[in-house]
Amino acid sequence: MKKIISTDKAPAAIGPYSQAVQAGNLIFVSGQIAIDPKTGNLSGSTTEEQAKQVFENIKAILESRGLSLESVVKTTVFLTDINDFQAVNTVYARYFKTDCPARSAVEVGALPKGAKIECEAIAAV
Fold first, then answer.
1. Mean pLDDT across the stretch 5-27?
2. How does DSSP classify residue 41?
3. How far is CA 62 from the centre of its chain?
4. How far is CA 102 from CA 17, 27, 99, 109, 120, in A?
5. What is the mean pLDDT of residues 74-85?
6. Rounded to whole angstroms, how far apart are CA atoms 40 and 26?
7. Banded model confidence at residue 92, pLDDT cuts 50, 70, 90
8. How confident is the model at residue 14 (pLDDT cuts 50, 70, 90)?
9. CB-hemisphere CA count at 13 Å for 110?
């Protein structure tokens, strides 16, 4: 059985998908780009600025279910330029401080709205 998760503290889906879905003891957070939920616009021009908003969005979705980033067991980071990997790592380390989740990072050709980074996450309840 699945439960749809939605909060106004994170950007609304920009297509036919949910912000997150809970299935059993897992929460699958859809890929988040750096959309500011207050304005609906892309937040930040640098990869670092965008990464901060991405992780704030993931955090807000998890907090809506009473969880934190410590619940995350896996992330996948999509970058339009893999050379930004270290810059993202610096921001990532501010959000995932100990017992870090498993992670993949890949370069992609493009992301919605011209974003430089997107991240999806899986959390355990």
1. 95
2. S
3. 10
4. 24, 15, 9, 23, 12
5. 98
6. 28
7. very high
8. confident
9. 3
